[in-house]
Amino acid sequence: MLFYDLAHTRAGDKGSSVNISVVAYDHKRYDHLACYLISETVMEQFKHITDGPTTRYDLPKIKAFNFVILGALGGGVTTNMSMDLHGKSLSSLMLAIEIPDITNNQFGA
Amino acid sequence: MADKVRIGSGAGYAGDRWEPAVELAEKGEIDFLAFECLAERTIARENLARIRDPGKGYNPLLPDRIRAVRPGCMKHGVRVITNMGAANPVKAARRVCEIANELGFSGLRAAVVLGDDVRNVVVGTPELELIETGMHLEEILPKMASVNAYLGADAILAALHTGAEVIITGRVSDLSLFLAPILYHLNWSYNDYAGLACGTVAGHLLECAGQVTGRYFADPGRKDVSGLARLGFPFADVDQKGVVEIGKVKGSGGRIDERTCAEQLLYEVHDPSCYITPDCVLDVTDVHFETTGQNRVRVVGARARARTETHKVSVGYHDGYIGMGEISYAGINSVARARLAGEVVADRLKMCGFVYEDFRTELIGMESLHGKMETQLEPYEVRLRVAGRSAFRRSVVAIGLEVETLYTNGLAGGAGATQVVRDLFAVQSVLLPRQLVNPSVRVGQLT
């Protein structure tokens, strides 16, 4: 299933890194993502942009994760040659990650 | 002692809309209106503007914003705090007083926070390491355009104590613009971590203005936001018990709920347990939200601990030029034509002897935002983008000119060529011991 149906995302820049927050629509979806949306999964989706690494931080009280992806913005906002200087559109790349169907998950109900 | 305070957020970046700020000043029942208008590289550009014209160097929209909100602020006793002073806060404050006089509000008192410009200090510390690259400061000193320390709420508090109605700063932490009036109005100590946590988390949710009321959020059919064209900007209510609630003016567009707040809470945050500001280290790991009304959310669970012993200092420096050219192709075989056009431009530039530190050709509509994907359908139309970076202006000007020649010298059906050349500013950071940064406040005639 598509990540898009499980959570919403927002990207922010700091230097040459981007942080992408992932906020699940409910607790069931959060648990599902906690299981399958590991740093390696995210790195696979961003591998053509950066070598990373990617770090995941968990915020269960707001059903959210924060992913920090190093090197995703070239030289940072000021010397980055990309059209998307701040990496603002990268939140949408995250939403396109394929996740195993929620009914096959141990947390599914 | 006041029971509670309400702070409005009037802007989230240098070029932001100002009607929402007027709405807050006139109908928001706010005590303070803070405008955050200074991104990392903005101050480098404003420094150059000041060098060219000593009367400039502050936010170019400051006169418009102040003119628009002044009547509402006067009527309701709202004090304004802003970093729109950028590289020339004294001139900015003088301009604010002139505008107040023109509008018939003579006698306006402005205070200026100084001391963020530490250019003269870092000249004496060339050995400092740049956080981003590990280079030493001395390597970029010759190209330096601006050197500004992120001042904290303590510097702004001193300005509030002068009684000034408008407070103008240069580089301060975005969050401190909001924290300072909260501490001041509630008479909270700068050393009380519970208070610092409340004020800092409120500031973090407010600093990007409409980003907590539905902008940078909306996705039609999935995350709908009504009234985006007349989006309301947020305010925060903080009371003596430390209860923080985010809201907006009734009838304004946009939405505030636990989802908009969650996205903004993590915006530009790396480790959520360690968000460093000049005032404290904020921990938002256990923050959660409670809906307390329509478009009203309570923020619970922020913690703060002692600030670090250093000030983050942004060093802006001139880093050459970037040149860009674009041209579009449509219909059958348009992707192949655009690709070949890109190769022609690259060959031409090489033949002319231009060399670039960084050079790329890409197709807008295919790969310009997320890079080349493994599977990608061909769109009906595409736009070739050619971009290059160089220390020589002439080299980057050539890019747009070569793209334009594709009209008559290139592939069939090229349309809508455009070209852009920009000065490039890079920003890196150093950490400067606190004792080397000495903020001060200036009030009075400011002449």
Mind explaining what this structure looks like?
The complex is a heterodimer of chains A (109) and B (447). Chain A is built from three helices and four strands. Chain A has 109 residues and is of the alpha+beta class. Chain A starts with 6 loop residues before the first strand and ends in a 14-residue tail after the last helix. In chain B, the strands form three sheets. A ten-stranded mixed beta sheet of chain B has the order 11-12-8-7-1-2-3-6-4-18, with helices on both faces. In chain B, strands 5, 14, 15, 16 and 17 form a five-stranded antiparallel beta sheet that branches. Chain B has a three-stranded antiparallel beta sheet with strand order 9-10-13. In chain B, 50% of the residues are buried. In chain B, helix 1 (19-27) packs parallel to helix 3 (62-76), helix 3 packs across helix 4 (89-102) and helix 6 (153-160) crosses helix 7 (176-186). Helices cover 29% and strands 27% of the residues of chain B. The longest helix of chain B has 18 residues, at 334-351. With 447 residues, chain B is of the alpha+beta class. Chain B has two domains: 4-116 and 151-308, no CATH class; 315-429, ACT-like. Chain A, domain 2 (Alpha-Beta Plaits, 2-Layer Sandwich). Chain B starts with a strand and ends with a strand. Classes of the chains: A alpha+beta (109), B alpha+beta (447). Chain A binds chain B through residues 4, 8-10, 12-17, 19, 21, 23, 48-49, 57, 59, 61-64, 66, 68, 75-79, 81-84, 88-90, 92-93, and chain B through 40-41, 131-132, 216-217, 219, 222-223, 258-259, 262-273, 284-289, 301, 319, 322, 358, 360, 362, 364, 368-373, 385, 387-389, 424-427, 429.
